[in-house]
Amino acid sequence: MARPQLSAVAELLKPITWFPPMWAFGCGVVASGMPLADRWPLILAGIVLAGPMVCATSQAVNDWFDRHVDAINEPQRPIPSGRMPGRWGLYIAIVWTILSLALSTVLGVWGFAAAVVGLVLAWLYSAPPVRLKENGWWGNLACGISYEGLAWITGAVVMAWGAFPDLRSVLLALLYSLGAHGIMTLNDFKAVEGDRQMGVRSLPVQLGIDRAARVASWVMAVPQVVVIAMLASWGQPWHAAGVAALLVAQIAMMVWFCADPIKRALYYSGFGVPLYVSGMLVSAFALRAATQAA
Predict the structure, then answer these.
(1) Of 44, 45, 54, 43, which is closest to residue 20 (Cα–Cα)?
(2) What is the pTM of this model?
(3) The 3-state secondary structure of the chain, one letter per residue
């Protein structure tokens, strides 16, 4: 049986996509307010689990079950191009699922449970018969929860030795998960033609290009407005101002993006999304400061 080259395996697992859940896990760690010195082994294990394991698994699962759509939209990807021969894409997805579960056991019961939830969402997102990604509302929500909220809460739980995290941390995680729904929509603009042909009801397919761009922008912006109000109410006006400044910069980019979503979605992802995730970290430090001041 032909085997894929390591370069094709790396491309299948998409290291560039690992950053968001790794960052969100780190935000949960910071927001916990707990000392870091004696928990570095757990923190490193959690970062690896969030990115190179669970997120990488989701990429392999998605590419396997999307191979027919990718043959239209992105034929250069490892599976449709033939660089990932036979059923190797599926085998790698299964092996990475098992390895992810094994690693998660070092994070305790809650870390294992979070990994199970993340992996279940990964398979439900792409695999039939559920295939959440066929509806942009549900699929993007599943991604936002898994990439941002679940990773954030896992980081907070690990730092608290398995105790339920501060409710304020959970609220921040949920708000940034909702905002990430809009970020996920940005990825759909490059695949509109193939999605239409294959019956994938992404938001650009359902709502049209221009309306989907406006909806994605609102979905990203509104949760951040709520976050700003929360930070101010916790007695952290400078952190609230920092998130507000980042949001103003995002809104300027949103206006530019909405003028030509197809051409500009990739650029917005590259420059606007870092502003969004920077606000996550500012919010995490705000909660840390509020916790330590209490």
Answers:
(1) 54
(2) 0.92
(3) CCCCCHHHHHHHHCHHHHHHHHHHHHHHHHHCCCCCHHHHHHHHHHHHHHHHHHHHHHHHHHHHHCHHHHHHHCCCCHHHHCCCCCCHHHHHHHHHHHHHHHHHHHHHHHHHHHHHHHHHHHHHHHCCCCCHHHEHHHHHHHHHHHHHHHHHHHHHHHHCCCCCCCHHHHHHHHHHHHHHHHHHHHCCHHHHHHHHHHCCECHHHHHCHHHHHHHHHHHHHHHHHHHHHHHHHCCCHHHHHHHHHHHHHHHHHHHHHHCCHHHHHHHHHHHHHHHHHHHHHHHHHHHHHHHHHC
Structure confidence by residue, pLDDT tens digits, 190-231 = 888 778 887 889 999 999 999 999 999 999 999 999 999 999
State the residue for tokens 């992404």: 202
Tell me the residue length of the chain. Answer: 294
Cα 94–chain centre separation: 20
pLDDT in tens, 249-282: 999 999 999 999 999 999 999 999 999 999 999 9
Amino acid at 261: P
- How many Cβ atoms sit within 10 Å of the Cβ of residue 259? 11
Q: Give the integer Cα–Cα distance in Å for 96 and 113.
A: 17
Nearest to 275 by CA among 80, 23, 77: 23
Q: Where are the domains of the chain?
A: 6-293
